[in-house]
Amino acid sequence: MAKIRHVLGISGGKDSAALALYLRRLYPDLEIDYYTSDTGRELDETYALIERLKSALGKDITEIKPIEENNTNAESNFDHFLELYGGYLPSSMARWCTKKLKLEPFENYIGNEPTISYVGIRGDEDREGYISKKSNVQSIFPFRENIWSEDVIKKILSNQNIDQLVLLYERAMEVKELEEALHYISKPINTSYTQKQKLEALLRIGVKTFNQVVFQFLKTTDYPIGKLNSFPLIENEDIIRLDDVFQILEESGVGAPGYYNKLDYEVEIDGENKKGVYARSRSGCFFCFYQQKIEWVWLLEQHPQLFEKAKTYEIDGYTWMQEETLEELSQPERVIAIKKEHYLRTHREQSKSDNNWQDDILAAEGVGCASCFI
Ligand code: SF4
């Protein structure tokens, strides 16, 4: 049997930390290599979480380097590439930072060995995460009901593989249970019956059976999992949501990253003093352009030196946000306006949901980069 490598990227965020702990507890025999790719511009709370995680896992977390230290005089990995890009700040439209600081170092680290990469996208999220373009890397999503990546699902459910799927289900299921599954399997995907509907129908019939069938199907391909004799996660039916992630972190003693601590702020609205709460919603660089206005205010008030540092990058017309500079955002009247808007929005949403802090995290996760924030 070919040697297959198992890896898990630790971003410094809650989900990848929880996934590492979860897999360690449930599947101690999986020899997983943990790695992290440091931009050099993360919050101290992120570095602290990684240290706590190392102790809890009892294993080192390899730091993969986007650039060898003796090949640069820059203050950080981020600054090295910023110099190469002539001071052009990254943005959601030109995300060179993720490419240079996360994705390329990951692909170099992996090399050409067949590799399974575990990704902490949760069961309550609707996003796919980063899928490596390298054919020797296969992503697995243990927190979701569907643990397989989109490319695998597309392949196995494609209309041209219906006959193969029928055969695999016939082998995996008792004859008396087979009828319903065959009904869905033999139905071709088209505009009125989507891949998503077909997948949901098959998962409803049985997650373990579906996983068993995918595993057998992969044996006919070059995917890394197809080279294994067995893969324990095909027996896993857990769906891990946001609440579960926090529970895993608490129970392990690692705890949630410190930047999630909710802090009070005060703002005057219609002559009344109101108390709101703010926190940062995710890991990543302290100046990340994906953060919301209220998170910039949080940085200004909770980490003033880092805010000042972020400001120093705004030169030659380059800014972190399109519509205002950090100098403008830090003006007292602007800070009050942002807090007011945040207070009113979150309290409006709170009347619809009794878990509005979690809603804030879920909303923030809708945008951004899965490599930096998982
Ligand atoms: S956290 Fe934001 S700024 Fe940092 S590398 Fe990721 S996308 Fe870029």
UniProtKB/TrEMBL annotation:
Protein name (record): Phosphoadenosine phosphosulfate reductase family protein
Gene Ontology MF terms in the entry: catalytic activity
InterPro entries reported in the protein's UniProt record: PAPS_reduct_dom, Rossmann-like_a/b/a_fold, Sulfate_adenylyltrnsfr_sub2
Annotated Phosphoadenosine phosphosulphate reductase domain residues: 6-136
Domain of life: Bacteria
Stored SUPFAM superfamilies: Adenine nucleotide alpha hydrolases-like (SSF52402)
